[in-house]
Amino acid sequence: CVCVCVCVSESVMEVQSYLIGVIEASVAVLGGEGVAAYGKDIINIILTILHSPNTAAHEDCLRTAGLMAKEIGPDFSGYMPHIWPYLGGYLKDRDRGSTYITAVLATSDVARAIEGRIMSYCDDIVGCLLAALSSPTLESRAKPPTLSCLGDIALGIGSRFTRYADPTMTLLQQATLFDMPLDDSIPAQTMLRNDLWEGILVAYSGVIMGLREAPPVQFANLVKIHMATMLGFIRKISETFVMVDGSPRYGFESVLRASCGLLVDLGSAMGPSEVHQLRTHFVQTLLEGCINGSQNNNPANRLSDKTKDAALFARKAIYGH
After folding, report:
1. What is the 3-state secondary structure (H, E, C) of 7-39?
2. SS3 helix, strand, coil % of the chain, rounded to 5?
3. Phi/psi zone of residue 271: left (φ > 0), alpha (ψ -120 to 50 degrees), beta?
4. What is d(CA 62, CA 230) in angstroms, rounded to the nearest whole number?
5. What is the CA radius of gyration of the chain?
6. CA torsion through residues 297, 253, 176, 215, sign
7. How many helices (H) and strands (E) does the chain have?
8. DSSP symbol at 301
9. In this structure, how many other beta carbons lie within 10 angstroms of the beta carbon of residue 4?
10. How far is CA 93 from the centre of its chain?
11. When comparing pLDDT for 102 and 273, which is higher?
């Protein structure tokens, strides 16, 4: 009897894994209207599998929930009371490796989709994210998406992120101090550093843009307190990723583009009397490297037009042309 039960249980888990894989693919194909039409059926399948001991399929369930949120947007808020106990549970379990990362990515998808409607869950979400980033046991690969998720939450809830601003900015300040020698011969190490720096930049951008709706004096004080750290970080990036001849190093485009994005956000958020703080030699070097990098004769170091456009936007926000 025991053997039969084990075999049946394994068969059920295998079917569940296949089923959630089909559901995930279907959500991508159906699009917003199709997902909305079958939303209750889809979420019931997700919840059934999440409630089962089939932890191997739970990651797929969380990913499918995030994809579902992207497709139906604000309407996903109606499903949050049902999915949150599972999503929140995995956010708290930061030692679960890839499942924790998937939960973070799903939370980012949900925050972008339902925006301010995520507010009632933010105490728990932000608490989990900050605790994870402060933990010495958090895997290095989990840090970039966790940082980015903070930015997505800030963008989603806008000025209401004020209550989380101080601990978040303090943590970001600590994260900017992370460094390791640049060694192109160790791709994994380089990628880790780049992903972390990009996550920091995305988080900063999210907080700056989200808090633009806060009371002007409060926003101005926040920017003033943390401006030196943000500029110091951009200087580090400029000196690391833009070579002496002004051309960008190979493989660092996403970090350079995220830097330009933060400069756009800062330039747009600061008043005419304050934007001069951004007019530094290293900012100019970074922007020129990104603009001219799209015309680099070496294909390996050539940047995309997307990065060039981001640098042009930043230059206009800072210099007015």
Report:
1. HHHHHHHHHHHHHHHHHHHHHHHHHHHHHHHCH
2. 85, 0, 15
3. beta
4. 33
5. 22
6. positive
7. 13, 0
8. G
9. 8
10. 19
11. 102
Q: Which tokens in the block code for residue 221?
A: 């004080």
What's the pLDDT score for residue 115?
Answer: 95
Report d(CA 119, CA 23) in Å as an integer.
28
236-269 tens-digit pLDDT: 999 888 765 556 665 688 999 999 999 999 998 8
Listed residue (222, 106, 125) closest to 172, CA to CA: 222
Check residues 282 and 297 and name the one with the higher pLDDT: 282
Residue of 251, 248, 227, 245 lying closest to 311 (CA atoms): 248
Give the per-residue SS3 of 222-239: HHHHHHHHHHHHHHHHHH
Could you report the per-residue pLDDT of 177-206, keeping only the tens digit for each? 877 665 666 677 778 888 999 999 999 999
pLDDT (average), residues 98-126:
97
Dig out the tokens for 265 from the structure. 């956000």
- Is the distance from CB of 287 to CB of 311 less than 8 angstroms? yes
Q: What is the pLDDT of residue 182?
A: 59
> 3 pLDDT band (50/70/90 cuts)?
very low
Q: Which two tokens stand for residue 115?
A: 């925006």
Distance CA 130, CA 154 (A): 13
Side-chain half-sphere CA neighbours of 233 within 13 A: 28
Tokens of residue 112, six digits: 């972008």
Of 220 and 198, the structure prediction assigns the larger pLDDT to 198
Is residue 251 a contact partner of residue 294, using CB atoms and an 8 Å limit? no
Single-letter amino acid code for the residue at 261: G
From the number of C-beta atoms within 10 Å of its C-beta (0-12, 13-18, 19+), residue 1 rates as exposed
* Tokens read off for 147: 């940082």
Helix (H, G, I), strand (E, B) or coil at 248: strand
Question: 């330039």: which residue's tokens?
Answer: 267
289 is written with which tokens? 């490297």
Name 5's Cβ contacts closer than 8 Å, sequence gap at least 6. Answer: none
Which whole number is the average pLDDT over 51-74?
A: 93
